[in-house]
Here is the input.
Amino acid sequence: MSYSLNEDQLQIQDLIRRVARERVAQRADQIDREAEYPHDMFDLLKELGLFTLPFPERYGGTGNLMSACIAIEELGRVCYNTAYLLLVQWLPFGALLAGGTEAQQERWLPGLASGELRGAFSTTEAQSGSDVSGIKARALPVDGGYRLNGAKIWCTNSDLADFVLVAAREGAEPKAPISMFIVEKGMAGFAVGKKEDKMGARGVPSCPLFFDEVFIPQENKLEGGFKAVMASFNASRPLIGARGVGLAQGALDHAVEFIQNRTAFGQQVSDFQGVRWMVADMNIQTEAARQLVYRAASLVDNGAHANEVAPAAAVAKCFASDTAMKVATDAVQLFGAAGISSEYPINRYFRDAKVLQIIEGTNQIQRNIIANSVLGRSPRA
Here is the structure.
């Protein structure tokens, strides 16, 4: 079935599409080229009140994931980095909503909602990316709290964040349970390393983190548990698919404009049948990805069971990001030699799409989730 948008969602789509075209698009290339955090774009999103979009109305949100997917798609269509600003604010927000105590929520969520505070989320270590069970960071119990030691990599937004939600093993045993801890900026022994020089997603920094005997007070441990936090992220995975849809649609938009303004062998490039079929396939793939993302978001909004949401969200993320890569690749081809020139924006879509196939759960991991839902869990998984 086709997943139609309601009147409120159509209004959100229209607003953000206009803002994206009029106020965001002209900044996209510069943000990518300079690899500097776009504070002006953050302020724009703050001005529009978008930081709580998928969350309950008591925080100023719509209470539905579909609206958030629309916002990500429309912003990502012109600037992947600006869309990313929403997501990096939503990850810690969703984690605290799912696993935080009432006191933690009262302390941090209003600031995240208004944009007065910025957060980050960190699980990845040098030896544990997709394999969360490989986490080695340790939080050892001491009087009044914990002592945190270890290191993380690829923590997005960390050099700007007021706090970072950090996954660490609670205890000295090799397989001690994993818990989440709020590590605040300025805590003794906590350091953020140099930002990575990334191929894509260049405007939002990713950095290593270092923890040397960092004291974490008891009240900074999330009591809801690591599993509750990760379940909330699985439910939000359609947002990653929406980024893929935005990239694919944006790449298609640029390719169509380019071929309609170029001639070869005495005719407009867009009149060649081979080119027209390429564009048709790009459009088919993008629309299919959009519908898969909307389906997954609808399941979340309608309260479907996690066993139904998880494979649908994995399908949406995997297919949409693979589609973004395929459509961006074909768009570069349609640009010809211009496609490999930094003078044109299409190579930005290509690089960002490649990043999206890897982050937020690689597409190989998504395929494992999907296969498990179809075949049952592998005895080796």
